[in-house]
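Subject: mismatched residue count in predicted assembly?

I count 581 residues in my input, but I want to confirm that the predicted structure covers every chain. Input:
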Amino acid sequence: MTPNEIRQKFLDFFKSKDHKIIPSASLIPENDPSVLFNTAGMQPLVPYLLGQKHPMGTRLCDAQKCVRTGDIDDVGDNRHLTFFEMLGNWSLGDYFKEEAILYSFQFLTDEKVGLGLNKDRIYVTVFEGDENAPRDEEAFNIWKKYLPENRIYFLPAKNNWWSAGDNGPCGPDTEIFYDPNETPLGDITHDEFVKADDEGRVIEIWNNVFMQYEKKSGIVVGKLAQHNVDTGMGLERIVMVKQGVKTVFDTDLFVSILEKIKELSNVRDEKIERIIADHIRTTVFMIGDGAIPSNAGAGYVLRRIIRRAIRFGDKIGMKEKDLLLLSDIVIANYSVAYSELDKNKNLIKIEIEKEESKFRETLERGLKEFEKGTDPFVLFTTYGFPIELTEELAKEKGVKIDRVGFNKKMEEHQKLSQTASAGMFKGGLANHNEKTIKLHTAHHLLLAGLQNVIDKNIKQRGSNITEERLRMDFMFDRKLTDEEKKKVEDWVNDKIQRGLNVVRKEMPLLEAEKIGAEMEFGAKYPDIVSLYFVEDEKGEAISKEFCGGPHITNTSELGVFKIQKEEASSAGVRRIKAVLE
Ligand code: SER
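Triage response: the counts match. Full output below for your records.
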């Protein structure tokens, strides 16, 4: 079976079980500013898992494009990938454990409607229970209908509880594993199974999450109004199992790309070949969904991936523009399932070509700067020099670079450009829901209000936003009067009622300083910064702040602004707590 056939078979199987096939959402989330890319099949469906009605009904299935770059440095081994497809079936308050398990088992093992895998090579795990939810005897008993009891293992939340991050739908899961070894493992004990999993001798192929609970700020707070099923099966892995090969790179998904790489290069290096194959696939899909190489956000991740591919290509003797030949193969392989790739073929190739020539230009200039002993962080931000490259060059020359200092500067840079905060690269949903985003925009308006109504020299000294309220510390040496507070509120509410645009811009640090944008006290900024402006009807900035976002796009979304409290925080510093009603 080819990958395209396996994907289609999955969708057809669930269609026959009354599921509606929905298209993959874009890799770049539309309504979720907390992540740069979809990292799981469930991400675009979160509102529906939480109870919103889906236009296509309560039974859905899809193949969802996903990107996870948290493990980018591990790509090149036999299993890590930055792009993958997640096959999923969904019950939104419809069927639950009984059908979910039956469907999974049938699809995997049935010769006709499924993949016809050997059931003697299947092992499953279920949730052993904790303070949040009971031991999943129900799933265990259902599985017993299909598999011998001694191949069903109870494991703790670490293994069998799934959530996308600290907030949102979650629940216990049951995971399905496959034994790909020539000599089957056969009956193994609980401990032997755990060991086999650790050592990669059994492969997790499918996760069924029984999403019945909700997490807030990392704590399970209770049950959802409806029970859901969220399943995820990585296409690359299931293809590997079905095709009986040892790594995802030996599947049809990669073979043609790897062959072309071998043809285009003159040095054999399996690891590098895999990295390039992985990165070109991710590049094609990202641009196909509208990402453009840049210095912030999704575009920054894309830039990093393209430049990595070029650099590794150089090492094995690939030439300028060879990546374009690889992109042709990816587009051809995937156009059946993802017509957007064919549609955007020209754009994809133009962007890759542009980014390559830009990189090669800066590479030359960067090399000269490197010779002069320029700081690695400046090499990175101004010349697009990946730190690994600087490190390699330094090694060749026998000089040391300050990696700790670089990392520190990078952290600040990334926090600002909103690209790689741990949660984002790791793929968790950060704590950025709608409420906190609105309060964040209100926070900017409050500072501008204080400056306009009370004293134009007021500077912010700290901030903190929860879902309930915003808190701002600012330098000022006396209490505000009730009348002043009212005036600030009115100033902010006037801006809300006028429905003003909130706009993000990137510019060189020097320029941002020159126009007097508000900076965070004590913060260090990179050479290129991100700013948020609230603009009046004429496009004049009434607020401009150094900020990585996220923000809403128009102030009309905010509601009514109210100051709840104004008090002393420390000598010369006042503290305001405010809400949106
Ligand atoms: N949400 C689960 C996962 O990503 C199942 O789809 O593994």
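The longest strand covers residues 219-234. Marking this ticket as 'not a bug'.
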